[in-house]
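User: Round two. Same drill as before: sequence, then structure, for each protein.

Assistant: Same drill it is. First protein:
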Amino acid sequence: MSADCIGPPRSQPRLAASHRGGVGLGWSGADFLPGNRIVLLESGAQYFPALLAEIAAARCEIRLETYIYADDPTGREVTAALCAAARRGVAVQVLVDGFGAREFPGGLGRQLGEAGAQVQIYRAERAFLRLRRHRLRRLHRKLVAVDDRVAFAGGINILDDNDTPGLGPRFDYAVRIEGPLVARIWTSMAHLWRLVGWARLRRRPPVQTPSPCRFDQAAGAMTAALVIRDNLRHRRDIENAYLEAIAGARIEIVLANAYFLPGRRFRRALRDAARRGVSVTVLLQGQMEYFLPHYATQALYGNLIGSGIRILEYRSGFLHAKVAVIDEAWATVGSSNIDPFSLLLAREANIVVRDALFATGLRNSLNRACRTDVREITRADLQRSSLATRMLRWTAYGLLRLMLGLARYGGKDYRE
């Protein structure tokens, strides 16, 4: 790929600083807070040292939520740090998903419990082969809150980045947050911890308050919001945040997503943006991790490319990122993929940042990633595909749509 492999052509002007952050670049349903300092962390090489440093510095409390908590070198290192914190009197609470972290309760979870940490499982898997609709509703958030000082959010599980022989490290993002937004993250985590305990014990646990409480102190100049998805009041919040920002885009949209199977509304929004002259680039997974979503996503390539949307496949390693930059003024880093499982079923958490410096930094990071092993998919590539490959793509797409229909999720958005 070229040195500037994402974004508008060189002949197309970038947004002037005075025009950034215009109408449509913030979502009216999100509560944006000023006064934050947010640092972008690229993959585990930057995330885990920052996380371990904050765990070591914790004085009162550590909360951690994750989908996957693996018993590998990274998982054991994080566990040792959490156990050490618990032994020195820090209140440690760890919440993991019952499907993504199936082996955790009897392994690393037991070690944490023995050290004095509290551990809860979100929807524990007790009958692995039993088919029930609620089994698709998973905890996919990756959040950490340490004392009242700092929080982490993003897409990085407690999992070693270098666990696939022959491929580079898993490519993902997280953010380190200081400032008033930490309070929103703490409150959301405390609420979910309470709900899980209530469901397990069949009684309402007491409401918790952090101590000491200094959440309102400004730490920087960034304006940002926590946007969550759940199955009650916030069912479409993350998708709506994306859609409003896309509708307001003037120059450029860059999306990087591990699993990309958008519904009709999302696809139409991207096509409309491209038709009004916005440069739209979508960076997707080039390595096959899961058969059905891999081929189902490829079934959409022709329609997207035909609308003027660039499709890039990342092949250096597994792309696990779930980020976007719009007009170098709006950016999001989080756990939510652009697929029905994230947008309709799972509990997710994204940070949306309205700050030109942060957005530019994320865009530059994505551009650097594109210089390694990225291939642009063209219409000619699709035309050269064999009949068997084309049938495989549409069969995978049809199967996923059928699964959603049988589970009665998604409405017309995924059954057009």
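Second protein:
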Amino acid sequence: MKFHSRKLIKPNNLNANDTLFGGDLLRWIDEEAGIYAMTKIKSQKVVTKFISEINFVSSAKQGDVIEIGMEFVAIGRTSITMRCIVRNLFSQKTIISIDKIVFVLVDENEKPSPHGITLEDIKQKRS
């Protein structure tokens, strides 16, 4: 698992319980996953297709620094699948885990389009 970005939890990211608002976290995850998909598929024309069950493990509070990790899981004809873990940078405590996030390459009509990327291409990019 590679952790690609970090976020500082600020007052405007808090919910009524003074912990990180889940909606902000999910927005950050979707953005990070989209960027990850773009780098693997080599195109900016990707869209979120599916996000599996979201497991909120622990919370984050104002002042915490979190990091978002992405890991490649599978490649399809038009899609790429990854998993995500978000953790507290300093305590390493998991905040959220998502087993499956799927992005699809789309054409100019927003229809799924073959990306031509193979598992071998992904493995070479890891090196």
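The first strand starts at residue 2 and ends at 8.

User: Perfect.
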